[in-house]
Amino acid sequence: MNESDTYAVLSDALLAVLYAAGPIMAIALVVGLAIALFQALTQIQEMTLTFVPKIVAIFIGLLVFMPLMYTVVKSLSDQAFDMMMNGGL
């Protein structure tokens, strides 16, 4: 295994993390910004108002995006196990 193989494995791993966590992080960002805008407009500074909708949106996002996350992580692990079986890792 040379430097280019190592770079390829690390690049694939980082992309898999971004693809798996990206949709959930985007949902949390959008919901957080919407709640912050709502709080700024109404001057309601309730602490539970920031956490409860964001947690609900994240759980719904996990239910929706779990198949995508599974296929991304499974393909990365399949590539890694194939490289191990072929002696490349």
TrEMBL record:
Pfam families: Bac_export_3 (PF01313). One of its GO terms (cellular component) is plasma membrane. GO terms for biological process: protein secretion. It is a multi-pass membrane protein. The chain crosses the membrane at residues 16-39, 51-73. It is found in: Cell membrane. Its main location: membrane. Keywords: Cell membrane, Cell projection, Cilium, Flagellum, Membrane, Transmembrane, Transmembrane helix. PANTHER family: FLAGELLAR BIOSYNTHETIC PROTEIN FLIQ. Belongs to the FliQ/MopD/SpaQ family. This is Flagellar biosynthetic protein FliQ. The lineage of its organism: Bacteria, Pseudomonadati, Pseudomonadota, Alphaproteobacteria, Rhodobacterales.
